[in-house]
Every structure is written in C-alpha cells, then in structure tokens.
Amino acid sequence: MRTKKTVAMLMLGMSSLVFGAAAFAQTPGPTPSATSAASATTGAASPSAQPSQQTFIPTVVIPNGVYVPGGTGDFRFADPAFQRVWNRTDSLVASGQVSRTWFWGPGPNTSGLIEQYNQGVNRQRLVQYFDKSRMEINNPNGNKADPFFVTNGLLTVELISGFIQLGDADFTKFHPACIPMSGDFGDTLAPTYFAFQGVSNTQAGDHNAPDRTGQKVTETIDRNGRTGTDASKGNIAGVNLVHFEPTTHHNIPAVFWDFLNSSGPVKNDSGQVVTEQLIQPWNFASGLPISEPYWAKAMISGAVKDVLIQAYERRALTYVPTNPTGFQVEMANIGQHYFDWRYRNGGLCPGQVGGTPTAPVPAATGTPAPATSATVTAGRTSTPEPTLCPGCPTPTSTATIHIPPGTIIRPTIVTDTPAPTSTPTVPRR
User: Fold this and answer.
1) What does the alpha-carbon distance between residue 295 and residue 165 come to, in Å, rounded to a whole number?
2) CA dist 151 → 33, 127, 164 (Å)
3) Mean pLDDT, rounded, of the chain
4) Prior bond to 28 cis, omega within 30?
5) Cβ proximity of 207 and 300 under 8 Å
6) Would the pTM count as exceeding 0.85?
7) Does residue 234 sit in helix, strand or coil?
C-alpha cells in the first residue's frame, strides 16, 4: 500500500501540463475529424445557445495514484458500503456472468476523496468517482441498511447549471460544462451539458413540460442547444412517452422507463445471484428527469449516429437504437465528465476563463492498492471504515465568505458559500 508520504509527493509533483484525452472518452473509438459536422435539428437558436467549438486549456495532470478513468486503476473501494453497491450490479458484468451496460463502471476511478459538504461531519464527506457517477456518504453515522446510506451526486444538475453543490442548500457559482453528453472524445456533434441549460430544471432556471403521455419523441437538439423536430423519429420503437413525473414536470419515454424499471441478475449481500429489479427504487441511480428527451447526432465509435438523450438529476441516459441488445440504453460517463470539469478545468466554453486547477484531497482510507495489474477484477478489496481526513481543517464558525464566479473550488473546507441566485426546485440529497 502506498504511504501518505508517497501520495503527498505525487500531489506536490503536479505542474501545469495538458491532460490526456482518455478522461473524456464516452465511447471507445477514434477521435473524429474537427471538420465533422451534421445537423441534429431545425429551428431557431434557443436562449442558451453557445459557440460550437469545445475549448481545452492546459491544466494539472492528476497522477495515476489518485485518478485513472475507465476503472482500470486498481483502486480499493473507499468504504465497504461503496463496494456493496457496486457488487450488486456491476460485479456480474466485470466477471462476465452477464452482458449488459455498466451502472457505475468497471471499478473506482479514484481513491477515496474528501469533499466539502456543509451538513457532513466536520462539513466533509467521503466520495469516490466512477465512470458513470460519484458515490457519497453524507452521514457516516447513519443507518447502513438504509438504501440511501450511499448516494450518488446531482452531477448532471451541476454540469448543466454551472453551480457546484456544497451542502443541502449551498451552492457556489462555477461555469457550465461544454462537454459532450455522448459520443467519442472530441465529438463536435453531440449536445454539451451547457446545451441542455435552456431545456432543463436547474439553478439556472426551470423549463417544465406538460404531461405528454402517449405522444412520441420527435424533438431534436444540437450541440448549441438549438431545438427542432424530426417527425420521422416518432417511428422508432420505444419513443412513446409513458410516464409523467409530477415532481419535476418532465416526461419519460418507454425505452428509458423500461430500463429504469428492468429486472435481471444481481448479487445480494450474501453473495448469491438472484433476479431482482436492477435499480431500487427506479430513481436511485438516475434521480428524476430534469429535461424532456431529445434526439441528437453524435460520433460514436467513429460513426455518426442518432442518439436519444435525456437529462436526469444524477445521470444522463442515452438510447442508440443501432446498439446491441443490452447496450441500447446506457448511462453517460458523467463521473469522468464531472471530475475533469471540477478539478482539471475541463469543458470550458469559448470566452470562459478557468481558475488555477487544484488537486483532489485523498481520504486517509482512500489510498490506492498496489498497482499489480490494470485488469479489472470483480473481487476488489475494501478498506476499513473511513475516518474523515485527519488533519483537514475544521471550521470554527459558519460565517460567510464570498467565492468569486469562475473560482475553482478546492475539495477542502471553506467557511461559506453564497446563496443560489434563485430558489432551486430540483437539487436534493
């Protein structure tokens, strides 16, 4: 096991380098030409339209001992509860016992990390990043049998709105993410998270929809947030709207509703493989829908494809009708996207200015295991119960300080966050 001194040396050794492209990969495949273009929509530009060229700037490389996208970094689970959640669905995929899409990813992408959470112990919480999400323990003294003892972050809401959530109702202004929600790295076709700002419910504003149960999804969106319609898309199977969510006022098509309520083999806490609903309750992993579903174009494995995209509080769901069975509906690699956005200045839109990137803070129990192999294995070893960041500063008051817009938020304790510009209706923990 690496020592704390080794981790500290890795952290100190980081400098201004350009990060690798692999962290942004949504779907394996060659990088498309910068001249690739295809229109996903017709219609006028929405108020949230943005320039179409994604911008990358030099930033700090996170060492492999702290972050490796793709779940191949041989990290230990930061808490046994994280491992239980992963084991239930994804251990069977990792071992080859089932063939279906990942719910979290092949394994952890990071060691355990400490992030600010104002309602946590010492205003901190333990988190761990995966390709498709971030696991969190907000209250380590809570009931470990509670299905929501482990939660996963409202990453979609944050990426679309440009606000980072640092408490139950505490937010700080950052910047929206010009990162494609689907497609290969460098894709210039797929809509970015920022493109969904004008059609989603976030701190940047609410965009509700009426109950459209029984209608077909024919709406389109492009990289710049321009929306339109394509009547031919209504002929594709599974795009009929079957559920209206009254809490967030958005509709869910059959392909996503069936996926969120599907059953299949899972591994229970006793290690037995049983058939159960894969996600319990249906919105545990995804959260509730915060946008309508939209058709878009994306470069996937080097080919331009039609993809149906819908933003949920915690995940972004995609539907590619031409994909193999078991992989037509997938969750975007939002854990990768969010980590790069928050910690490495990823996803800056043209004209946006990034702050000085800072490294994430490893938890005492989140030290990576010895790097013996890059091969994913199902039997990863967990660490003991976590002790939150010994030596990290403990706030002495709740007095407020101002965090300027555009500031990179360090994953250590600060003594305040400004109130959101409006009362949010969606973000929940």
Assistant:
1) 29
2) 38, 9, 16
3) 77
4) no
5) no
6) no
7) helix
